[in-house]
Automatic annotation (TrEMBL):
Gene3D superfamilies: Cadherins. It is found in: Membrane. GO terms for cellular component: adherens junction; catenin complex. GO terms for molecular function: beta-catenin binding; cadherin binding; calcium ion binding. Pfam families: Cadherin. GO terms for biological process: adherens junction organization; calcium-dependent cell-cell adhesion via plasma membrane cell adhesion molecules; cell migration; cell morphogenesis; cell-cell adhesion mediated by cadherin; cell-cell junction assembly; homophilic cell adhesion via plasma membrane adhesion molecules. This is Cadherin domain-containing protein. It comes from Neotoma lepida. SMART domains: CA. Keywords: Calcium, Membrane, Repeat. InterPro entries: Cadherin, Cadherin-like_dom, Cadherin-like_sf, Cadherin_CS. Residues 3-83 form the Cadherin domain.
Amino acid sequence: LHSDIDSGDGNIKYILSGEGAGTIFVIDDKSGNIHATKTLDREERAQYTLMAQAVDRDTNRPLEPPSEFIVKVQDINDNPPEFLHETYHANVPERSNV
């Protein structure tokens, strides 16, 4: 996250709010870099909605409107297949599409 009005003099503070802000997601209040603090699992939660904003460091006055963004967690199949029965039967009709 970076504001166009940030001249790099340290007068701007970046803040983060929303689902998981401060615990799962943290923001460097000087640079605006956002990081996840742990590995995310889609089976626990598929997405997070966060709000980020640049404010004046001394007065906490918003310098820009808040920006909403959604972190969508992609699923990696980390579970081996499980077969509950020893034998399975299937039929495939002739000329079936692949």
